[in-house]
Amino acid sequence: MKRSVISLLLGFIVISLSAAQKERYPVSQIPDSLRTDAYSVVRFESTDFEYIDPQSAVEKVTRVVTILDEKGSDEANFTEGLGKFWELKKFSGEILDQTGKLIRKIKTSDLHTSSLSPELATDESVSFYECSQPTYPFTVIYEYEEKWKNGIIEFPVFAPMEVFQQSVQHAEYHLTTPVGTKFRLHALNMSDRADSVKVKDQEVYTWTLNGLKAIDEESYMPKLARLAPRLQLKPENFSYDKSTGSLNTWNDMGKWSWSLLAQRDQLSPQAIEKVKEIVSGATSDREKVKRLYQYLQKTTRYVSIQLGIGGYQPISAATVYQTGFGDCKGLTNYLRAMLEVVGIPSYYTIISTYHKRFIPDFASPRQANHVVLIVPLGKDTIPLECTSSELPFGYVHSEIAGHDALLVTPEGGKIYQLPTYPDSASFTHTLLRIHLDNSGSMQAKVRSIYTLTHYEEMIAFEKIANNDDRIKIIKADYRLPSMKITNIGVVEKHDSLPAITLNYTLSSDMYANQSGTRLFVPVNPRKNKYPLFSRKERKYPFVINGGNVECDTVIITIPDGMKVEKLPTDVVLKKMFGSFSSHLSLHRNTLQVVQRIDIPKEEFSASNNEDFKSFMNEINQAYEAQIVLKKL
């Protein structure tokens, strides 16, 4: 009798557990508002970060994500960095079907570990799990614990919405610190206020987010980091790999960075003699800097190095000289050391290639991801990209032009904004000289000039050795059904305002369409049709990150025995978004078409979407217009 009661109770417990299991995050419990524009939904996220002391902490994370369709499949994967500063102590995962029923458990043995890149010199690795589930929707649950060690420079970021098209049902962040621990925070698109309680000798702070609707990705919209809720936290004073410092201000961060440069600029007697030999005979400091920069480009190569504090500290200049390689920090410091030999001061400068602006009142190393060298020469300040073997001396490339930077000096960090170029300086100009015959076929000589940002894009083209690959790239710029490319030539202007000139011969049997006694000739055979930003009502501002000028001049020789019957009307547009002009002129047997579009670097309100679409429609119509020729 006793056994049967126990059996009944056990059976009841099993049934109860089974029933409870079926109710774990069923997809049916996702509100409709969080399904709109979403490929995935964060059902629940909890981050518990216990800051024990400046050297150690424990982070516990639970993240539950429902994948609604194949477009959100990447969000089912698990990735976590490991290394000298982080150690994965516990891990488990589960995959649930749409009703919440368990499909599969994920164990630590299912994780894979890999270094980030074969070119990295690093003591870090990535532990990851690629989730493959053929039926949608489904839910993944990841729970893990990570030990933080050897120093803490920032706390984990609270940003549960990781990608576009992802909504968040509920997320919470708990920070536990010893009583009296001073830290700073910066909140974006959320409140910085926390609920806090004291538990014995600790303080616990909690931030929560609920019901975050998915951000629908649109063309040319602001970055997700600007739109999604994000909370960054850091200790005011820190210890990191036996180095200590303060992050109260950017000046303080600069002082710490300067301390990491100590004794790193020493060069061997042999290297010093080499430096003096290189600058021998130079008639100005600018010429000395240029020679040493070009020597750096010819004799070193970039390798990313993240060893211990090496993520922030450069390898020594002497090591770079001996080995011929370094990361952005090492190469920049090496050039700084060479300039010191010849008495030219320069600044080791921290910068971001991703964000244009630093957060003024929240100094943190992780806002930057790159280092360049700034050389002040009287009124002429020269930024130098030390990782590139191709960029010309004095040219400020598009990933850093106009960005905030931190000059590292003995007195501390100084915010400096790198120079930028006017929009009109970055342009593409293509000249096509077309000889047309009365069957509609054509022969053309083409010359395209690319400057600044367009020059950067063309550097890769210049390095392509395979002619077939070059032809494929050129053809993509045209809307001709049949064409042949020959005689490709590339000429580079390698100076502080660089340019690449591309020359080639183009022929096509199907340029103009013949209909009876008439030829219908495209005003511009290039694929100069601009996509519209959105076919539906736009939600977010559209952002033009790089100003752009494109000009096409098409000169068409009219076949003997034909005349112009109809020319497209000239177009002149001047809008807040930019300007466009299309002008056609006839000189005896030659037609000249000049089309130019100027789009400034700017941000426009979403309310201007229809006006912008109208602007682009008129431009596209002008590009698609046709000239009508008729036989005499």
Describe this structure in words.
- This protein has 632 residues and is of the alpha+beta class.
- The protein folds into three domains: 27-240, Immunoglobulin-like, CATH 2.60.40.3140; 247-417, C8orf32 fold (Roll), CATH 3.10.620; 423-631, Sandwich (Jelly Rolls).
- Strands 5-4-9-2-1-11-14-13 form an eight-stranded mixed β-sheet. An eight-stranded mixed β-sheet has the order 28-29-27-26-33-37-36-35.
- Helix 6 crosses helix 8 (328-341) and helix 7 packs across helix 8 (328-341).
- It is globular and about 100 Å long.
- The protein starts with a helix and ends with a strand.
- Mean pLDDT is 92; it is low at 1-21.
Query: In terms of structural class, how would the helical and strand content be classed?
Result: alpha+beta
Indicate the low-confidence ranges by residue numbers.
1-21
Query: Mean of the pLDDT scores?
Result: 92
How large, in whole angstroms, is the Cα Rg? Answer: 31 Å
**Relative strand content:** 35-45%
The CATH architecture designation of the largest domain is Sandwich
The total domain count is 3
Largest sheet: 8 strands, mixed
- Distinct helical segment count: 11
Helical coverage, percent range? 10-25%
Cα end-to-end separation = 113 Å
Oligomer: single chain
Per the principal axes of the C-alpha atoms, what is the gross shape? Answer: globular
Strand order of the largest sheet: 5-4-9-2-1-11-14-13
CATH class of the largest domain: Mainly Beta
Q: What is the CATH third-level topology name of the largest domain?
A: Immunoglobulin-like
Number of beta-strand segments: 39
